[in-house]
Write a structure and sequence with these properties.
NAD(P)-bd_dom_sf, 3-stranded antiparallel sheet, 2 domains, Rossmann fold, 312 residues, L-2-Hydroxyisocaproate Dehydrogenase, Chain A, domain 2, 6-stranded parallel sheet, 9 helices
Length: 312
């Protein structure tokens, strides 16, 4: 029986639980938070909706043993990004949280895959992999799955096509140094660089700049307006969970530790990867032009510098 444990009952953790219930991903769902009143309230509210979703058992507690024997532990706990604050600025306090949390989690769920959602997700994925001493494939982050979804949505809206038919990725950091992979983007089977459907617009250089700026600043816009991003990251995380628990072999731009990838080593960042029941089975080489290759290396340097600053 599949069990998902979610650490953190804040807006992101609760939304992931909600999306998991609606899609019927797991038969057992556990929510852990040090705030007992909050976790009890979220679990009660979610359980009141069980009649309307695929059957599952949902429990919550301020005792970490609620995560026992989970197949996947999703970590969302940590300091929240404030208006105007970068993800990297969250690093210090959230690393300290992981130092105390990870040994406790491994004690109750030693066989679990660890899926990081807490920001800065690339830095924390690296730190947790080091702290846990688990194989790199078992510790990975939500990475740029959400950024890539934002990217596809904006391209689709501009071209007036279904977002499901746009295939385009954001790679590197889930943050300000991320890079758009324009050279390999397609609509259906048509390379974006060759897109010329009558009545469906084209992308100028100015359009590309605007779209990527909107992707990169999306979280800041949402946080400024409502305090947190939660719906899209909830759905993005559930897609990753489905890839794992259903053993889908799905290609997703999750964040995992890279060694010798396009000349990049000893850092966690997002590149297209095959995700299945074992975690990140393999990372895929991708076609890059010179600008993208240099951008990916700069993004790796940014993340690595943050990791070193924290003493890892």
């Amino acid at each position: 029986m599949n069990k998902i444990a979610i650490v953190g009952a804040g807006s992101v953790g609760a939304t992931i639980a909600y999306a998991t219930m609606i899609r019927g991903v797991a038969k057992q769902l556990a929510l852990y938070d040090i705030n007992r009143a909050k976790v009890d309230a979220e679990v009660l509210d979610l359980n009141h909706g069980l009649q309307f979703v695929p059957m599952a058992t949902l429990v919550g507690s301020d005792d970490i043993s609620v995560c026992a024997d989970a197949d996947v532990v999703v970590i969302t706990a940590g300091a929240k990004q404030k208006p105007g604050q970068t993800r990297m600025e969250l690093a210090g306090s959230n690393v300290e949280l992981c130092r105390s949390l990870i040994p406790q989690l491994l004690k109750v769920a030693p066989n679990a895959l660890l899926l990081l959602v807490t920001n800065p997700v690339d830095v924390l994925t690296y730190v947790v992999q080091k702290l846990s001493d688990l194989p790199a494939r078992r510790v990975f982050g939500s990475g740029t799955v959400l950024d890539s979804s934002r990217f596809r949505f904006l391209i689709a809206r501009h071209l007036n096509v279904a977002v499901q038919n746009v295939h385009a990725l954001i790679a590197g950091e889930h943050g300000d140094s991320e890079i758009p992979l324009w050279s390999s983007a397609t609509v259906g089977v048509v390379p974006l660089t060759q897109w010329a459907a009558p009545g469906h617009s084209r992308l100028t250089e100015e359009d590309r700049t605007r779209i990527f700026d909107d992707v990169r600043t999306a979280a800041y816009q949402i946080i400024q307006g409502k305090g947190a991003t939660n719906y899209a990251i909830g759905l993005a995380t559930v897609q990753i969970l489905e890839a794992v628990l259903y053993d889908e072999q799905r290609v997703l731009p999750v964040s995992s530790r890279l060694e010798g990838y396009q000349g990049i080593s000893d850092v966690c960042m997002s590149v297209p990867s095959i995700v299945n029941r074992t975690g990140v089975e393999t990372v895929l080489e991708m076609p890059l032009n010179d600008t993208e290759r240099e951008g990916l290396k700069r993004s790796a340097d940014t993340i690595r510098q943050a990791i070193r600053t924290l003493g890892f």
